[in-house]
Design goal:
It comes from Catenulispora subtropica. This is NAD(P)/FAD-dependent oxidoreductase. Pfam families: NAD_binding_8 (PF13450), Pyr_redox_3 (PF13738). InterPro entries: FAD-bind_Monooxygenase_sf (IPR051209), FAD/NAD-bd_sf (IPR036188). Helix 6 packs across helix 7 (238-254). The chain has a domain at 2-122 and 331-397 and 410-420 and 448-465: 3-Layer(bba) Sandwich (FAD/NAD(P)-binding domain). The chain is an alpha/beta fold and 467 residues long. It contains 13 helices and 18 strands. The chain is globular and about 65 Å long. The strands form six sheets. Strands 7-16-8-9-12 form a five-stranded parallel sheet, with no helix packed on it. A four-stranded mixed sheet has the order 5-4-3-17, with no helix packed on it. It has a three-stranded antiparallel sheet with strand order 13-14-15, with no helix packed on it. It has helices at 2-7, 25-28, 60-73, 167-174, 201-209, 213-235, 238-254, 258-263, 281-285, 343-346, 380-398, 407-421, 449-455; strands at residues 15-17, 80-82, 86-92, 97-102, 107-110, 113-115, 137-140, 157-161, 180-184, 191-192, 276-277, 290-293, 297-301, 304-307, 312-314, 317-320, 334-336, 365-367. Bound molecules: NADP nicotinamide-adenine-dinucleotide phosphate. The site of NADP nicotinamide-adenine-dinucleotide phosphate has 27 residues, from helix 4.
Amino acid sequence: MAINLRRSGIRDFVVFDKESDIGGVWRDNVYPGCGCDVPSHLYSYSFARYADWTRAYPKQEEILDYLHRCVSRWKLESHLRLGTEIAEARWRPQEGLWRLRDTAGTEYTARTLVCGVGQLNRPRYAAVPGRETFTGAQFHSAAWDPAWPPEAFAGQDVAVIGTGASAVQFVPEIAPHARSLKVFQRSANWVIPKYDYAFGPASRWAFRNVPGLRLALRGIIYTVVGETLLYSAIAGSALGRGVQKFSARHLRKQIADPALRAKLTPDFPIGCKRILISDDWYPALARDNVDVVTDPVAEITPDGVRTADGTDHPATVVIHATGFRATEFLSPIEITGRTGTRLAERWKDGASAYLGIAVPEFPNLFLLYGPTTNLGHNSVVYMIESQVRYIMRWLEAAGSGQVEVAEEALAAYTANTQRLLSRTAWAAGCTSWYKTADGRLVNNWPRRSFRYRLATTRRRARDFLTP
Ligand code: NAP
């Protein structure tokens, strides 16, 4: 968003971040093995395609470095207000402005407010008692204690709660070092191979020098892997059932023990939860010093984890790989709109925004990566770029005036999106971070991502009240 504002010649903007650096999830998540399971050549801005990726799938440090390069290339430093946490934003109808207040009490005003706080930045813990009683070391995967590199696990008995996309990345890194490691699995996941590898000097030379190569690769990954293969699993098509067979074969190939294989076989169709992509998760679980525990976690005790069958599992380190409070969009920022309604109040039964971007009664407020814009099959950077383009168009049209989406436009968008979501694999019977407590799917875009690009290409003036 900031780059596009600058590219359009707009200089009068600031970017707040509560932390002391930019980078979002790529700044926060520093667990061993952290990286992205979207291939490198797709996981970048279309206007800043990076030539120097070192591997097929980028690691966290490389992505953060890429983002820092973007900040300096587009001279964003002077716009950044780091270490500034916005607590409240209130629309002032008399002034036609947003008034913001940070946690230190400083106030700011802005004609337009764009929120890009993400969906996966507030850690969630298992809803079991006793966490505060544990006497060993414990941390969440998204708040990894830097005193715990893989080697530090030597001689430790480790308990990992959770088996999502984060756990599959760090468990293989620490398992070879730990004395014992127990993975507490509530549900098994479908996993497909990653085929990750480091680019050799010839490939890296080619990415730099062969015209069109990066663009072609990006297009193939986007179209063939994302929009066709992975999307088929979400759509539940015949091809999707083929992807499930491919995943089952990956399990058979990597896990020889039938009892362990049975534990790791999901009881829901592929695509219902996020598909995991890993070459080394199953081999880590098959190690002699690793156990997969499927009895539900009942309690954290001073000495480890107790499961519902009453067994105590002693541990010196507990790692909570239990994900994020992903359905509580924008929380805990208190945002109050034109009519005095708070956004959290409006969203108490589940967040919704027109195209995931605009909310009635909240003029000149735009969301990036808002409700119904997450993907399970392709790069969210593509979605965010679609949103940025759309917002830029509205900023241009609104000028110094106000723009607010109409209630009817949101109602029609939400009804259609929910109808489409109900036909996807996400709606099948499984738990996932895509669902609110009462099972409403609020995070994801139900169609292929290019359909979102099309939907955001035109600015439908009739859907907005002004200008
Ligand atoms: P997650 O996918 O939400 O996984 C949380 C895990 O904790 C699940 O296995 C869940 O079990 C488990 N859990 C929760 N409560 C539990 C309990 N009481 N007892 C036992 N297990 C419990 O979180 P995540 O792994 O941090 O990943 C979140 C998202 O971040 C991903 O889906 C992905 O979008 C993103 N991410 C992306 C990458 C990447 O490579 N691009 C890497 C990491 C993360 P259930 O499955 O039964 O609910």
